[in-house]
Structure to design on (365 residues):
């Protein structure tokens, strides 16, 4: 039995001091109070972060280099940064690239650690809101294509971003029936169209405010639809560049536990259709179009606290428990509780990472 003693833990009920966390065989066995004096040097222990939309790390953009080595390198880098669960994301691309990436994840899944599967962002989006996505690859889905895609994916496709106003209801229903999380995004849907999609079962929204119909006083758009809906969730990029920090603040106040963090992070790439260039803390395409972020999940949490008026406890939930709940893994990850995986991040008082544990094993940093 391993343990970390007399710690400040972020539990589902909030911050608790003077706690021992005991873990064995990859699982948290017990969390209990410690009556010893508080260690003034002790930092904090968070659950491991969960990022449901990231394209690459450590110089490896997965769609440009779909290989076993690439996903291993991405996993290693993200683990060192405290991300103990992620979906590797593919932007709109050719069927050949999608199939190559899916084939790699299918082969790798028995070895996989923190890679939970694939998030396909496109190609079934609206070209009017394509952002950095390649227009030539965007198309409407057919039910036959979706069936073939999921058959080939064999359970590796966990999430899909699409524009519901351009897709047939039977396509969306088939994805939902096959336990794919459907996210409304890169869409010009009206308030009514977005509300219909959420009522049909579409669970979430991709990078709120970016690449979607805006909130206007005479045309409420997607943001108002997700604000008003009782269950629909949304991801948001809290880098201050994709969304102003004050807007993140407002969204968090309105949506509460329905809003979660993603990095939407990419890495520099000079090959293929997505050639991301680092410029002043962000990534752009060669034509200057804003693409992915340069964020980590920890920096997202820090930004929420420092710039968005969000409490640390809520920001941690946005980076851990809420995304875990969306993908129905909240009992095994995303929180510190007995029976959950021993995935957690140890930070010092300055909120810098000192240790990362994944299934009870410390990750070398």
């Amino acid at each position: 039995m391993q343990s970390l003693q007399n710690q400040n833990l972020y539990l589902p009920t909030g911050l608790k001091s003077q706690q021992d966390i005991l873990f064995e065989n990859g699982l948290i066995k017990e969390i209990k109070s410690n009556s010893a004096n508080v260690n003034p040097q002790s930092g904090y222990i968070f659950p491991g972060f969960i990022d449901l939309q990231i394209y690459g790390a450590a110089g490896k953009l997965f769609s440009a280099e779909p290989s076993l080595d690439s996903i291993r390198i991405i996993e290693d880098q993200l683990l060192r940064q405290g991300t103990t669960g992620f979906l590797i994301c593919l932007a709109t691309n050719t069927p050949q690239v999608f199939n190559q990436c899916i084939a790699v994840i299918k082969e790798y899944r028995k070895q996989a650690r923190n890679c939970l599967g694939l998030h396909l962002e496109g190609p079934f989006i609206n070209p009017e809101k394509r952002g950095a996505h390649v227009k030539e690859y965007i198309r409407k889905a057919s039910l036959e294509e979706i069936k073939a895609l999921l058959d080939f994916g064999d359970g590796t496709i966990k999430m899909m971003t699409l524009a519901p106003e351009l897709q047939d209801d039977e396509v969306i229903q088939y994805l939902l029936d096959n336990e794919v999380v459907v996210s409304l995004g890169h869409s010009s849907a009206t308030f009514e169209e977005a509300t219909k999609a959420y009522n049909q079962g579409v669970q979430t929204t991709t990078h709120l405010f970016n690449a979607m119909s805006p909130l206007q006083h005479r045309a409420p758009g997607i943001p108002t639809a997700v604000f008003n809906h009782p269950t629909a969730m949304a991801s948001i990029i809290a880098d201050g560049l994709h969304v102003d920090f004050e807007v993140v603040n407002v969204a968090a106040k309105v949506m509460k536990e329905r809003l979660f963090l993603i990095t939407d992070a990419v890495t520099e790439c000079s090959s293929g259709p997505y050639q991301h260039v680092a410029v002043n803390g962000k990534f752009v395409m060669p034509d200057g179009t804003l693409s992915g972020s340069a964020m980590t999940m920890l920096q997202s949490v820090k930004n929420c606290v420092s710039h968005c008026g969000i409490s640390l406890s809520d920001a941690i939930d946005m980076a851990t428990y809420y995304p875990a709940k969306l993908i129905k893994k909240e009992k095994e990850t995303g929180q510190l509780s007995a029976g959950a995986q021993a995935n957690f991040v140890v930070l010092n008082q300055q909120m810098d990472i000192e240790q990362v544990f994944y299934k009870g094993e410390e990750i070398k940093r």
